[in-house]
Request: fold
Amino acid sequence: MTRRKTGAALLILASSYYLVESIVAARWPAPPGYSWSRNMISDLGVPECLGDAPSGRFICSPWHALMSAEFVLLGIWVLAAAILLKPLLPKTPLAEAITYLALINCLGNVLVGVFPGSASEAPDGSHLRVVLHPTGAYLELFAGIAIMAIIARLYRAHRGYTAFTLAMLGASFVGMIASVTSSPLGAGAAERLAIDPFVWWRIVTGVVVLAAAGRPATR
Reply:
């Protein structure tokens, strides 16, 4: 029971991402400040003040270290939660894949945090960051989508929860399409629509697991 509650709490801890994101964004010089629609999420972790970067975004995040640390923690928490909650999953090869996908998601988040983005927009940007940051972002995104897809398949009998999971999957796909098209949302908003659903899903899943902790027979 303690293991289940701890795993659920780690999933709910993903909500700290929004708190940290808001704090770091608030520290940007104003005007123009941080734009939730134009600025990318990763801009919050960039250690350089690029001013008006070639992309047209203003990038200057004084509290970048806090955001980068949060990216790393998000990855560690999802992996730890997957390990702790593994006994709740059915004993099938499909369910076994969740732990490995959580490891990939963790690795992606760690790369995003350790190798901050937007380096390519600086004249002397690190080539290593240019390669590893987007690699981490893609690993994080696609591993999260795969986890949600598997859970939707495994728990399709739980209609309400499955409907929520499918809604989060749909939102991610819409965000990915918006990210590569001329979307009126803005680059930052489109990216959030692609990435944030897995964070929302983790929080709600943690609440669901925690609520069921008093019913040991509930899987």
